[in-house]
């Protein structure tokens, strides 16, 4: 297995370059596709240089030694940018985002003395590690700790972004691509789990013998490859996987909500802890909401958002969100899809619709996919739409 390792890394490197090119050639490149393209190029360079070292290529080209050492500081910032865009935290890269790359720049600068050494000295320092005496960079133990720490921090951020995004989507939108959300969660959790492997490596180093190098073992490429190539697979199988499919303009009231909450006199009264709307306004708005849902059936619009519905009621979006949560005990997503399912059930009971297919009824009810319709219908009626229809016709 050890003999095959450098060739496996070369295969990783070639596949990563191929994936990076595919990302760059996407029809509508965005921040996420560009970030992942850069991430794959970094991974290709990292694995390629590791294979080069394992094959002893550094003896004829010692100037390449040390080039891969700062690369681990790039994985986190690039994942941060990609998930920031995918989860609607940013729409484009700004100047302040480049501060995330300062650890990479700083570490590269600290390696400058090693890069300026002669080839023979570089080979000697690499092959003759002596703890506290001969090593490639300054403060090697601290550097390894910082590498692990930075990776952990940047592995938590995508995970938190996805959780916040999921909560935001079900708060604002009546139609959710649950499959896409699940795939994003899988990537974020898998990347987060990689940090536990690094913690294990760090523990082994601190508790092991003195001759162990304070380096992250190249075997760490295996879990990283699993995360990165799984991302590539999801992206190729779903062209929208790396796109932000929600409007960030609809999220602008979140900041307003926080400001109003801080300034509201109602917030000081315990009875308004869960419902910050005045009681008379809440009752009136709830009646208007029920009337609107019964008469105009806005839920039949598959693209209906919380902001849209609030506009129809002439109230603020966060008031509508509070109303649905506190008075009805649901979030916007559940509220709308429950109404859609019940409307679909009424349509299927109507003999005038006997010539319509279940898919047609699903679309008429506001669903944009049969799978989503079947899932929610079964949750509410504990049977499939087909069985329900046969029973009532």
Can you walk me through this structure?
The chain is an all-alpha fold. It folds into two domains: 5-247, Rhopdopsin 7-helix transmembrane proteins; 249-392, Orthogonal Bundle (Arc Repressor Mutant, subunit A), CATH 1.10.10.60. The protein contains 17 helices and no strands. The termini are far apart. The relative contact order is 0.08.
Question: What key phrases describe this protein's structure?
Answer:
393 residues; mainly alpha; Rhopdopsin 7-helix transmembrane proteins; Arc Repressor Mutant, subunit A
Summed up:
The chain contains 17 helices and no strands. The chain has helices at residues 5-24, 31-54, 72-86, 102-110, 112-115, 119-127, 140-172, 178-207, 221-237, 253-263, 279-295, 306-313, 317-328, 332-349, 358-364, 370-381, 385-392.
Radius of gyration: 27 Å
- Described by its quaternary structure, the protein is single chain
CATH class of the largest domain: Mainly Alpha
Order of helices and strands: HHHHHHHHHHHHHHHHH
Instruction: Please identify the structural class as seen in this structure.
Output: mainly alpha
Summed up, the helix count is 17
Number of domains: 2
In what range is the share of β-strand residues? under 5%
- From the N-terminal CA to the C-terminal CA, the straight-line distance is 65 Å
Shape, principal axes of CA atoms: elongated
- Major pleated sheet: none
Kindly report the average pLDDT value. Answer: 86
* Share of helix, binned: 55-70%
Name given to the CATH architecture of the largest domain: Up-down Bundle
CATH topology of the largest domain: Rhopdopsin 7-helix transmembrane proteins
**Low-pLDDT runs:** 248-272
Q: What's the total count of β strands?
A: 0
